[in-house]
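User: Thanks for the earlier help. One more: GD15088. Can you show the sequence and predicted structure together?

Assistant: Of course, both are below.
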Amino acid sequence: MDEMSVSSNVVASTNRSGLIERLEHLQKELTLCEKALAEYLETKRLAFPRFYFVSSADLLDVLSNGIQPEMVTKHLTKLFDSIARLKFNRDESNEINTASGMYAKDGEYVEFNELASIRGPVEVWLNRIQAAMRASLRHYVMEAVIAYEEKQREQWLFDYPAQVSLCGSQIWWSTEVNIAFSRLEEGYDNAIKDYYKKQISQLSLLITLLLEMWSPR
């Protein structure tokens, strides 16, 4: 570049002896660097497959900030659908050492049933976060399914995270439909009609709850 800046004549500057060979050599070196970088990023994606959801530029940003979890959280929405951020805990030296829950984009908070360690390479602790998410939701779903018959449904719905309530509702809907068919086979002719009335009643109650929540005060 210094040599080319001496002359303002484009033809003279670009026809220097050996320039093409030097540029070709630089291109080969750049290709080798790009290949090595791609192979490195692939090892990280294999270690944490959700990295396939982000671009190489975003992945480099995640890896470069791996020891700063709060900097990594800006990419969470690309790695986990609807997860906006995590709740971090600090140790005595004021360094982040664990995560105890997750926040959705709409602000809903879900507590992990066990703390997730934020130590080691970023792909390692993100795997721990993912495991904590799965274990926590599995725990809450099992708890919700058991508690379904012990509470009023309108109370039960708000005692658990939205995803858990939806999943638990579907599990119990399937169970109750099967029960209704069994009663029909046993000779109870109004089993399906009665369950239909129950569903209408539940939907009407949900509509009332929503209207109360969204009505201006």
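User: Great, one quick takeaway?

Assistant: Residues 19-47 form the longest helix (29 residues).
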